[in-house]
Design brief:
Elements (H helix, E strand, L loop, with lengths): L1 H47 L26 E5 L3 E5 L4 E5 L20 H11 L3 H16 L35 H15 L3 H11 L3
Antiparallel strand pairs: 1-2, 2-3
Helix pairs in contact: 2-3, 2-4, 3-5
């Protein structure tokens, strides 16, 4: 009986081991195939589009790229009237901007609106040979008297116009449009200043001293 029992147990042990080994081998094969498939998928995604995974992030932003439609166009930017940068596709250039003109004394010449009473007066002053210094005196004088207004009127004295002629009808000697034309008033006023004070700076000095001219 002992021999029979021993011979009967031996096949069961060998069958048990033979059935266990193939079962473990199939499990490991499945895990290996799954790991290989996952690695291959991750590698393929990053090779084809390495940024595709970022689109799922809430911080991802698709920044548009605008093509250059005209490479020949340039842009000029000015800074404080001193310098200008000219930007192009291939680089940029920095150049000095034009400086304002200088007057005879070396100061900056005034920038006046074309056709304004101030601009008309400056042209007449320069035509008389008085220069920028005399114009600056005249500007201060008539700024004080009338603020360069053609229709400025002093109701208490009757003085009228840019030069505050007293009475205003005196300016009719320079033109019949003396009430409305700044050039007529300026021409008369400069003639008055020349005959009484010599120059606009002379008239300005007198006005500063006694508050009239």
């Amino acid at each position: 009986m002992a021999k029979h029992s021993a011979s009967h147990r031996q096949p069961r042990t060998s069958r048990s081991r033979a059935g266990f080994v193939p079962h473990l081998s199939r499990h490991r094969v499945v895990l290996g195939l799954f790991a290989f498939t996952a690695a291959a998928t991750f590698l393929a995604v990053n090779v084809v589009d390495p940024y595709s995974g970022a689109t799922a992030s809430p911080y991802y932003e698709n920044v548009p790229v605008y093509p250059v439609t005209d490479a020949g166009m340039a842009q000029t930017i000015s800074f404080g009237g001193e310098y200008s940068n000219e930007l192009g596709r291939d680089g940029y250039d920095v150049a000095l901007a034009p400086k304002p003109p200088k007057d005879e004394a070396g100061g900056d010449a005034p920038v006046l609106e074309s056709g304004s009473p101030r601009e008309i007066a400056r042209q007449i002053v320069l035509a008389r040979g008085w220069g920028e210094e005399q114009y600056r005196c005249l500007d201060k004088l008539w700024q004080k008297e009338s603020n360069w207004r053609v229709n400025a009127e002093n109701r208490s004295s009757g003085a009228y116009g840019i030069p505050q002629a007293l009475p205003g009808r005196k300016m009719a000697s320079a033109g019949a449009d003396w009430q409305t034309n700044p050039a007529t008033q300026i021409t008369w006023g400069l003639g008055y200043i020349s005959g009484r004070y010599g120059t606009p700076c002379g008239a300005w000095g007198h006005s500063q001293a006694v508050n009239w001219y």
